[in-house]
């Protein structure tokens, strides 16, 4: 996504928070979001993939497009029929400096689109039984009460971990080229943000 906020038309009265909640509130919309994260597709192609009627899929695509949750990638005439191709909102990796240069609304929209995709991938895998079927699944969360230095150290540690995961992917793909092994898609999502409220302090001091 460019540094402009997502353009919302038909549902422009909704806040980005409402838009994200709506996008992941229906199984078909979740499936559309996951498929469009892989490339550019028409409603008919998506309908065949998920086994749903094209008119139903088209309705959900229109709603997602109006909300700014997805984008129109291109329009082509195929056998005298105008075909619309859609994609996920393009989201490049933003540096700390680029994020800091955004307006609060731009940051909120960017965060919302990221959360939308994370939750769509998680729910799609959850419905498909992929999460419980993965012997190395890792799902955990809790709050940590830290000072300003601790907050910086957590962010730095997450950045190091993310770079390591990207290197692991490159090494894996190189091995697959040599061995012919088929690669698996694994979702790795990192979240690190200030909590809405401060939780009780967990006493980690050793008892006397």
Q: Could you describe the 3D structure shown?
A:
A hairpin with a 2-residue loop joins strand 1 (70-78) and strand 2. By secondary structure, the protein is mainly alpha-helical. A two-stranded antiparallel ribbon has the order 1-2. The protein is 49% helix and 8% strand. Helix 1 (16-23) packs parallel to helix 6 and helix 2 packs across helix 6 (104-127). The chain has two domains: 1-131, Arc Repressor Mutant, subunit A (Orthogonal Bundle); 140-208, no CATH class. It has helices spanning 16-23, 27-36, 43-50, 54-67, 96-101, 104-127, 148-179, and strands spanning 70-78, 81-88. It is built from seven helices and two strands, in the order H-H-H-H-E-E-H-H-H.
Tags for this model:
208 residues; disordered N terminus; two-stranded antiparallel ribbon; 2 strands; mainly alpha; Arc Repressor Mutant, subunit A; single chain
Ends apart, CA distance between termini: 54 Å
Runs with pLDDT <50, length 5+?
A: 1-10
Bin the strand percentage.
5-15%
Here the CATH topology of the largest domain equals Arc Repressor Mutant, subunit A
Question: Briefly, what CATH class of the largest domain?
Answer: Mainly Alpha
Report the oligomer. single chain
Strand order of the largest sheet: 1-2
Structural class: mainly alpha
CATH homologous superfamily descriptor of the largest domain: Winged helix-like DNA-binding domain superfamily/Winged helix DNA-binding domain
N-to-C SSE string, H for helix and E for strand: HHHHEEHHH
Q: Based on DSSP secondary structure assignment, what is the total number of beta strands?
A: 2
Helical residue percent?
Answer: 40-55%
Q: Taking Cα atoms only, what radius of gyration do you get, to the nearest Å?
A: 20 Å
- In DSSP terms (H or I, runs of 4 or more residues), the helix count works out at 7
The CATH architecture of the largest domain can be given as Orthogonal Bundle
Q: Write down the overall mean pLDDT.
A: 90
> What gross morphology would you assign?
globular
- The number of domains is 2
